[in-house]
Structures are given as C-alpha cells and as structure tokens.
Amino acid sequence: MLRIIFLLSLLFALSNASVQDFCVANLKRGETPAGYQCIRPIHVKSKDFVFSGLGTAGNTTNIINAAVTPGFVGQYPALNGLGISTARLDLAPKGVIPMHTHPGASEVLFVLTGSITAGFISSANAVYVETLKPGQVMIFPQGLLHFQINAGKSSSSAFVSFNSANPGLQILDFALFANNLPTELVVGTTFLDAATVKKLKGVLGGTG
User: Fold this and answer.
1) Do 103 and 70 share a structural domain?
2) Residue 1 resides in a domain
3) 43 is an annotated ligand-binding site residue
4) Where do transmembrane segments lie in this chain (predicted)?
5) Which domain holds residue 158?
C-alpha cells in the first residue's frame, strides 16, 4: 500500500513539474547561439504573442521591385525558442527576390495574389522551377539557393514560413558584389571579367 501511495505521489509531482511554455525574447540583451534570454513570465502580456507587421504591403520601389517584410524573432520576440518564423513577400511587376539561401531553415511559400515563378537548385545542381498561382505552396529545403519572380503583369504577394525563429539570409549577388571583396578575387573565383564585376559592384554598392 505504501508503495502505491509513493508511486502516485511521484507521478503527481512529475505531472506538475515546471514546464517552460514559452520564452519571449528580451531583445535588450544580446543574442546567443541558443537564442535570446527570456522576459520573466510575470512581465509577459497577451499582446506579446500578436504581430501585426505582415498586414501591410512592403515598399517595392527599389532595385529589385520587391519587398520582404520579416516576422523573425527580432521583430516578433514571442517566437524565441519555438523554432518557427514568418515573412511577407510583395513583388511589383518584374519584381524579383534574388537567388539566396537560408542557412538555418527550410522555407514554405504560400502564394496570396498574382503568380510567382519560384525555384531552387539542389546540391547536385538539379533545378526545380514552378509557376505558382494563389493558394499554391512550394517548399525550399534548408540551405539551398532559391528565388522568386513575379510571373504576371500585376503585383503579387505571398507569405513564407520557416522552421527557425531566425532562419538567416545570404543573397548571392550581395555576397559577391555588395561588399569590399576585391575585384580580382571575384574574377578569380567566377567566370566573370573585371569590367562586369566592377559594373555590378557599382550597381550594388560594393568596393574593391
């Protein structure tokens, strides 16, 4: 009998053990490889779990005729530690999200309006491209180069989601031409000539 009581007491204790349901990020403290430190639950409000940043179209008046509005942990602190995030894509006619990669997450694209041609390149250099209509979804595996282009004559938009609170982003063109990587190194590691490299650096603000 005493053994049964002991086991029931142990089960009750385990069922009531402290579980950390969430960890709303304290953005005033530095980010670590494990994420941000938590705001104390006593200071967390219901509004901390709501994010309104994706309700308005982004400004597409720029060189790529497109806008990405992120809902990552830096904008939406309640995502901290949950392994998810989101963003909004807006593409004017001829708009493009250039070839890029997310080192920390896979991406799911859900088309809201218009039509979007999207695709990715596998590590074996196989190409997967589709033109998507509203309501269609496409997946981009983690770390692979991918892109989105407005395939119509009117504006298009989409929501994307990631399996990380901070998926990371590296845009291929910017990595090559928007920094101070010397022209001769870009020439030496690509099949481009110096004149083309300097022209692209001039467009994207790079030097060297």
Assistant:
1) yes
2) no
3) no
4) none
5) 63-76+83-168
